[in-house]
Amino acid sequence: MIKLGIIGTNWITDQFVEAALESKKYHLKAVYSRELETAKKFGEKYAGKIEYADDLTTFFNLAIDTVYIASPNSLHFPQAKQAVLAGKNVIVEKPAFSNPTEFEELVHLANQKRVFFFEAARNIHEESFKAITNRLPDNDHIIGADLSFMKYSSRYDLVLAGEEPNIFSPHFSGGAVMDLGVYPIYAAIAWFGMPRESHYFSQKIATDVDGIGFAILRYETFDVSIRTGKISDSYQKSEIYLDEGTLVLNAINSINQAAFHRHDKSVEEISLQSLENPMIEEALDFAKIMNHPKDVELGELYQEWVELARNVNQVLYDLRKSAGIVFDADQK
Ligand SMILES: NC(=O)c1ccc[n+]([C@@H]2O[C@H](COP(=O)([O-])OP(=O)(O)OC[C@H]3O[C@@H](n4cnc5c(N)ncnc54)[C@H](OP(=O)(O)O)[C@@H]3O)[C@@H](O)[C@H]2O)c1
Predict the structure, then answer these.
(1) Pfam families from the entry (predicted)?
(2) Residue 252 beta carbon below 6 angstroms from any ligand 1 atom
(3) Where in the chain are the domains?
(4) Domain 124-279+311-331 adopts which CATH fold?
């Protein structure tokens, strides 16, 4: 059983802990919070002996082997670094790190310490996503794609009231492309590989990060457009244009409806299922790697995920650069 410790006590950590426990591969052993009271309030919902800490040095000395990190984005790097140096595997919420410098340092350290680093990019671990991946032909048969993920954030109300919540703050590496754009970017790179150029056209909000934007990833023979944002809702489906027709997806994560529309107007419905807790599949995937550290095939799969995470991190960085979005983390 994996001995799990968690950092960050918001709802997403509950969702991950519930997924981890449901997978039957993890025990929740320790909770860190800046406030001991918050840590205890979080942990008391779960069974078993759980230890608590309000400082990270104590926390990393507890009996845990793996840490799930769901703090504000800019804190992922220093916290993951401390965890890895203490010999822990890290599951880091998306987007794992603010820029390629942080990414490379963390991966280098993880390799040195012989621990695993996972980015919790849940969409690529979902069975429905894998089914779409298997359905796609190689890039010679792709004509383009139009991917979308945009959702109004209630925390934008705080921005309108003159505040700077973490998710919209350049001090915490926030903004639309980092928070939601990361999912379609993951999809594009998982499906089509690394683009040769990427551009981002975005509108900044009062906090100086992107509230809404439109990215274009240019490949050798086609383009992928990506709509993302946190200051409005999109009801647009995602589409992939193939030489034989169009693959229409109801979403870019938790995909549960897909249909292939051929040029002759015939339609093939693709049967897919998304789980109620969309984090179970990633919890299982990560556990498989951690429980079989010497398995060669799983080792290769792990390296593929790291490479994919590296490419996503690079594209996010390039997109931000093209739109003039600068984080405190870039200036260190
Ligand atoms: N995979 C998904 O579907 C999904 C969904 C939502 C969010 N996320 C990711 O999860 C991460 C957290 O997002 P969130 O919206 O939950 O962030 P958040 O509410 O801003 O912060 C998360 C936790 O971090 C701690 N924290 C907050 N502000 C802090 C500060 N200034 N200094 C140190 N610690 C602080 C708090 O825990 P304590 O008070 O206990 O210290 C808080 O519960 C992000 O990386 C986000 O992208 C992923």
Answers:
(1) GFO_IDH_MocA (PF01408), GFO_IDH_MocA_C3 (PF22725)
(2) no
(3) 2-121, 124-279+311-331
(4) Dihydrodipicolinate Reductase; domain 2 (3.30.360)
Find the farthest-apart pair of alpha carbons in the chain and give their distance in angstroms, rounded.
64
How confident is the prediction along the chain (332 residues), in pLDDT tens digits per residue? 999 999 999 999 999 999 999 999 999 999 999 999 999 999 999 999 999 999 999 999 999 999 999 999 999 999 999 999 999 999 999 999 999 999 999 999 999 999 999 999 999 999 999 999 999 999 999 999 999 999 999 999 999 999 999 999 999 999 999 999 999 999 999 999 999 999 999 999 999 999 999 999 999 999 999 999 999 999 999 999 999 999 999 999 889 999 999 999 999 999 898 788 999 999 999 999 999 999 999 999 999 999 999 999 999 999 999 999 999 999 97
Q: How far apart are CA 65 and CA 233, in angstroms?
A: 39
- DSSP per-residue string spanning 163-177: ---GGG-GGGT-SHI
CATH superfamily for domain 2-121: NAD(P)-binding Rossmann-like Domain (3.40.50.720)
CA atoms within 13 A on the CB side of 13: 26
Q: What is the CA radius of gyration of the chain?
A: 20
Confirm or reject: Cβ of 224 under 6 Å from ligand 1: no
